[in-house]
Write a sequence for this structure.
């Protein structure tokens, strides 16, 4: 049985003797089979494309990553400018109307809790940022003043320009919500900062 098997293996080895490479590793030999034509075609095409790409990107025919980035940023800025032009102007009347809009107030409160409470407190009592519930204000306490601060930020004090992060409606909603918490006197309120502004 063993002899017959060995004879078969020997016969099989003789059959492919011309196709075997001369070297072997631990008794393992390789067939001298060429790469498939399609594989070699892809390889050659890759080499040609690499040469074309190298020349093209250095000659300016193919845009670089920096070119794509600058074009993308320009398109994004154009979209922002267009949106800014089409968005309604924010004035005192619009802000006052938002204060009476329950849906706007709900959205504004949600945005406040997500983005503002970490500095101004859950109830606007003030933490790192100033107290928003008393009558003292650092940059003016009118609706338009508050909107400007929320939208443009106060970089010197570490407050970001939320107008670059939130939508216009969210900014207006935050301002409207802040208006509703004036005079609420929450516990552990921060000491007054700024100048007093009469009114609510």
């Amino acid at each position: 049985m063993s002899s017959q098997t060995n004879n078969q293996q020997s016969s099989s080895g003789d059959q492919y003797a011309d196709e075997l490479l001369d070297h072997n590793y631990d008794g393992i030999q390789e067939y001298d089979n060429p790469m498939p034509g399609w594989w070699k075609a892809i390889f050659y095409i890759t080499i040609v494309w690499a040469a074309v790409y190298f020349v093209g990107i250095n000659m300016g025919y193919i845009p670089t990553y920096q070119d794509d980035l600058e074009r993308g940023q320009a398109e994004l800025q154009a979209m922002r400018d267009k949106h800014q032009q089409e968005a309604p102007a924010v004035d005192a009347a619009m802000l006052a109307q938002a204060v009476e809009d329950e849906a706007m107030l709900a959205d504004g409160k949600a945005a406040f809790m997500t983005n503002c409470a970490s500095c101004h407190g859950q109830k606007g009592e003030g933490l790192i940022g100033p107290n928003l519930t008393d009558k003292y204000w650092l940059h003016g306490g009118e609706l338009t003043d508050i909107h400007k601060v929320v939208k443009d930020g106060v970089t010197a004090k570490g407050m970001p320009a939320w107008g670059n992060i939130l939508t216009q409606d969210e900014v207006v909603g935050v301002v409207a919500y802040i208006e509703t918490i004036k005079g609420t006197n929450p516990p552990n309120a921060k000491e007054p900062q700024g100048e007093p502004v009469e009114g609510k």
